[in-house]
Design goal:
Number of domains: 3
Distance between the termini: 34 Å
Number of strands: 2
Shape: elongated
Helix content: over 70%
Strand order of the largest sheet: 1-2
Number of helices: 21
Structural class: mainly alpha
Strand content: under 5%
Length: 497
C-alpha cells in the first residue's frame, strides 16, 4: 500500500523533540519514585496501611517501573534519530526501538504461554478498571498481530546483536527507518499508555499519602560531569568517517545481489568460486563497517544529549555497542579471540598476502585490541545484561529497570569514556587497514579470475577452430558456434560484474 503521508516539517520535528524531552524527564522521575516506593515497601515503612497486599503492590510498582524505563528508552532513541544528520545515523539509532518494543511486549505478555507480572495482576485490575483494560487488550491484540511474531523475533535478534551473517544483517536492517519504527511504537503505545494510566491510578488508590510523599522527595544530583571529553575535533573526525563510509555497505550488497541474479539466470554455481565465500560469509568490510557505523552513530547521539538521563542512557547504548562489537571483533578471552572476525577474516586474509608494512600495522592494532580486551569496564557482562533486557534480574533480585538507576547515579569515570573513545579510534584504523587488505586481495583476485577466463576463451577458440575444420554441415556448425557464443557471453558477463 502506498504511504501518502508527508514528511514532517522542521517546526514539527523541533516540536517532537521538545515533547519527547518532556516525556523522557517525566519517565525518569517516575522511575526514581518507583525505586523509592519499592525500598519503602520492602523496609516495612508502609505497614501502617490497612489491608495492604505488599506482594501485589510490589508487582504493580515493578511493572510500572519497566513501562517508565521503556518510555525513557524510546524517547532517547527517537530523539537521537530526529537529531541525526545522516541517514545511516538514523538507522543505527532507531533500530534500538525495535528491540525495546519487542522486549516490552515480551516482558508484559511473554511468548509460548509464559506467565508474567502483568498477567499476575491483570485479572484484579480488570475488575477495578474494566474500560481501560478493554482498551489495553484491544491494543495488545493489534500489536501482537502486526509485530509479535517469529519474523519480528528474528529482526529483534539481528538488531540487538551483530549477526555472524553480514547479508542477513543488511537484509533485516534495510527496511528500518523512522516511519516504520514510529508506526511500531504507535502500535505499542495503544496498550502501553492506558496500562501506565491504570497502574498509576492503582498506586494512588493503594498507597495514598505515601505515593504523594514519594513525589515530593528531591531527585538526586542531575549533572553529567564528563561532557567536556566530547570535543568538537573528535566529533568532526567521526562525522567525516560516517560520510565517507555511508553507502559502502549498501553498494557492497547491491553488488552481491547483482552477482546472484546473474548466476541464477545462467545456472552458475557460485559455491565453486573461492572468492564467493569471502564476499558473503567472511566479508571483512561488512563485519567491520557494521561495528564502526554503529559505534560512531551512537557516539554522536551521546554527544548531542541534553539532559542527565539522556546522557546516561546514550552512554549505556555506547557501552553496549562497544561491548557487543568488541566481542564479535576480537573477544574477551583467548577462545573467543580464536573465533573472532579479527582472526577469522582480517588476519586470515592478510596471511594470504606478502606485505610487511601491513603485517606491522596489524601487530600495532592488535596490541591496542589486547589492552582493550583487559578493560574491566568494556567487558562488564553484568552491566550489559542490565541495559540489554527489560526483565527481572534474578542474580540481583531486582528489576533491570531499577538497577538502571543505580548505574545512572554512579559517578561517570573519565577513564571509561576514554576506553570507548579508544575503541572508536581503533575501529577507524581497522577500517582503513581492511580497505588496504581488500585492495590488495581484489587486485590478486582479479588477476586470478582474468587468467581463468582467458583460459576458457582460449579453449573456446580451439573449439571454434575445430568446428570450422571438421563440421561440414552449415546448420550443425552454426548450432555449435551459437553454444560457444553463449559461453563467451557468460564469461564476459561474469568478468564484468
Amino acid at each position: 500500500m502506498t504511504d501518502n503521508r508527508k514528511p514532517a516539517t522542521p517546526e514539527q520535528i523541533e516540536s517532537m523533540k521538545a515533547n519527547l524531552k518532556l516525556t523522557l524527564e517525566s519517565s525518569y522521575h517516575e522511575l526514581y519514585v518507583d525505586m523509592v516506593l519499592l525500598e519503602a515497601l520492602n523496609q516495612g515503612m508502609m505497614d501502617s496501611i490497612a489491608n495492604l497486599d505488599k506482594e501485589y503492590v510490589s508487582k504493580v510498582i515493578r511493572v510500572h517501573a519497566n513501562i517508565c524505563y521503556a518510555n525513557l528508552c524510546l524517547c532517547v532513541q527517537l530523539r537521537a534519530s530526529l537529531k541525526a544528520e545522516l541517514g545511516v545515523e538514523k538507522q543505527y539509532n532507531i533500530r534500538r526501538s525495535l528491540v525495546t518494543a519487542h522486549e516490552m511486549y515480551k516482558y508484559l505478555y511473554g511468548f509460548n504461554g509464559k506467565q508474567t507480572l502483568w498477567l499476575d495482576i491483570e485479572a484484579t485490575l480488570r475488575q477495578l478498571y474494566p474500560e481501560k483494560c478493554v482498551e489495553i487488550a484491544e491494543g495488545k491484540d493489534i500489536f501482537r498481530y502486526e509485530y509479535a511474531n517469529n519474523k519480528d523475533c528474528d529482526t529483534r535478534n539481528v538488531a540487538k546483536h551483530f549477526s555472524d551473517n553480514p547479508e542477513e544483517f543488511y537484509e533485516r536492517m534495510t527496511p528500518v527507518n523512522e516511519r516504520s519504527v514510529t508506526d511500531r511504537i504507535g502500535a505499542l503505545m495503544r496498550f502501553l499508555q492506558p496500562m501506565h494510566s491504570v497502574l498509576v491510578d492503582e498506586l494512588r488508590n493503594k498507597l495514598g499519602f505515601y505515593y504523594l510523599v514519594s513525589w515530593a522527595m528531591p531527585m538526586p544530583q542531575q549533572r553529567f560531569e564528563v561532557t567536556g571529553s566530547v570535543d568538537s575535533e573528535k566529533l568532526e573526525v567521526f562525522k567525516q568517517g560516517l560520510v565517507h563510509y555511508e553507502g559502502i555497505v549498501d553498494g557492497l550488497f547491491r553488488q552481491i545481489g547483482t552477482v546472484k541474479k546473474f548466476a541464477s539466470e545462467h545456472n552458475w554455481d557460485l559455491t565453486q568460486i573461492p572468492e564467493w565465500q569471502f564476499l558473503v560469509d567472511n566479508n571483512m568490510v561488512a563485519h567491520v563497517l557494521y561495528i564502526y557505523l554503529d559505534l560512531t552513530s551512537t557516539f554522536l547521539a551521546f554527544s548531542r544529549s541534553e539532559t542527565f538521563a539522556e546522557y546516561q542512557q546514550n552512554l549505556a547504548y555506547l557501552f553496549l555497542s562497544a561491548h557487543e562489537g568488541f566481542k564479535k571483533l576480537y573477544g574477551f578471552s583467548e577462545e573467543a579471540c580464536d573465533k573472532s572476525y579479527w582472526n577469522r577474516a582480517v588476519k586470515a586474509e592478510l596471511g594470504k598476502l606478502s606485505n610487511e608494512t601491513l603485517t606491522d600495522e596489524v601487530s600495532a592494532i592488535e596490541e591496542r585490541l589486547v589492552r582493550l580486551s583487559q578493560s574491566d569496564y568494556l567487558r562488564d557482562d553484568e552491566m550489559a545484561a542490565v541495559f540489554s533486557d527489560i526483565k527481572a534480574n534474578k542474580k540481583a533480585g531486582k528489576e533491570n529497570a531499577i538497577l538502571v538507576l543505580s548505574y545512572f547515579l554512579r559517578p561517570v569515570k573519565r577513564e571509561n569514556i576514554k576506553v570507548l573513545e579508544d575503541f572508536l579510534f581503533v575501529m577507524n584504523d581497522i577500517v582503513r587497514l581492511v580497505n588496504k587488505i581488500l585492495a590488495l586481495e581484489s587486485a590478486e583476485s582479479r588477476q586470478r579470475m582474468h587468467e581463468t577466463f582467458e583460459h576458457f576463451r582460449q579453449m573456446f577458440d580451439k573449439i571454434d577452430a575445430a568446428i570450422a575444420e571438421n563440421v561440414k554441415d552449415a546448420e550443425q556448425a552454426e548450432g555449435f558456434n551459437e553454444t560457444t557464443r553463449k559461453f563467451r557471453e557468460l564469461i564476459d558477463g561474469l568478468e564484468g560484474v
